[in-house]
Amino acid sequence: MTRVYVSMGSNVDRERHIRAGLDALRAAFGPLTVSTVYESEAVGFEGENFYNLVVGFDTGRAPRELDRLMHAIEADNGRDRSGPKFGPRTLDLDLLTYDDLVTREEGLELPRGEITRYAFVLLPLAEIAGDERHPVSGETYRALWDAFDQDAQRLWPVPFER
């Protein structure tokens, strides 16, 4: 079994879509490790605030198969991919890591670059996998978070029944 981490976000009917995403992942993979849910401002466009979190689980599925499943769950939740890259999202699921696999295939980047670019990805990942190491830098996610410019992107935890 392979340990994977997936980021989850929504800024359209946030609670409903985050719950639906968690339910779909639990149905497909069983028990999940779930971070705190954080609220953050939209990045790259003007829009409603996002809810963001990271989930971890074990799987025997290949990375491409996981990516297709994430897209299907997004589609089931009304995700419209016809708009601009940065825009409102009913549900956004991104495969962040697949154990220590490093690949840059067409349409699949592992580990995902957003890990070290966005607080709304790194903080929840550091929360649930703080002692695990980034497959490229070798630093723990906790150390990456400690070194991150935490004033650059505001995040705040929100009460959320999982």
UniProtKB/TrEMBL annotation:
Pathway: Cofactor biosynthesis; tetrahydrofolate biosynthesis; 2-amino-4-hydroxy-6-hydroxymethyl-7,8-dihydropteridine diphosphate from 7,8-dihydroneopterin triphosphate: step 4/4. The keyword ATP-binding applies. InterPro entries: Hppk, Hppk_sf. GO terms for biological process: folic acid biosynthetic process; tetrahydrofolate biosynthetic process. Keywords: ATP-binding, Folate biosynthesis, Kinase, Nucleotide-binding, Transferase. Residues 85-96 form the 7,8-dihydro-6-hydroxymethylpterin-pyrophosphokinase domain. Its EC number is 2.7.6.3. Gene3D superfamilies: 7,8-Dihydro-6-hydroxymethylpterin-pyrophosphokinase HPPK. Pfam families: HPPK. It comes from the Bacteria. It is an enzyme of class 2 (transferase). GO terms for molecular function: 2-amino-4-hydroxy-6-hydroxymethyldihydropteridine diphosphokinase activity; ATP binding; kinase activity. This is 2-amino-4-hydroxy-6-hydroxymethyldihydropteridine diphosphokinase. It comes from Thioalbus denitrificans.
